[in-house]
Amino acid sequence: MLFDEGNLVLKRTIVAVGLVAAGIAAVPAPAYAASAAYTPERVCGSGFHRVKDGHRAMKTRDGAVFGHVYLMYSKSSGENCVAAIKTRFTGTRTLTGASLEVRGGGRSEDVQKYQFYAETGHVDGSWKCVKYEGWTRTPDNRVEAWGGRKSWGNCQG
């Protein structure tokens, strides 16, 4: 007999017990769990939703992803908001920023050493084109991850 189901179950049980004994479990690290609690909807506030073509990964030159940047819009207020949410170095204060520019309108930028995210605040952008970006750096300030859109878009309100 080539396959013994009883031995397979026993082997899975032994592996699972070994992982638990080694302290390896499928439980997220506290910093990741805390950053996962931050969604762009929560960061920008009630009534804001993700817009088409409004999400980019914040990547380093080597392609490592340090977080995500989201362009958000509130139909009721006609305002935009940008949230740059870290997925690397969460819980550690690193230079993190978010920027939003409205064609023919306002501009907002938020750059500080944040633990979890940066957010631009709300800028009127109804029926106007916008550019957005987000970035974060390593704790030693040597590597930056950037994401966003440098061209005008989302012009329909």
From TrEMBL:
Protein's UniProt keywords contain Signal: yes
Keywords, sorted A to Z: Signal
Taxonomic source organism: Nonomuraea rhodomycinica
UniProt signal peptide: 1-33
Keyword Signal included in the entry's annotation: yes
Protein's name in the database: N-acetylmuramoyl-L-alanine amidase
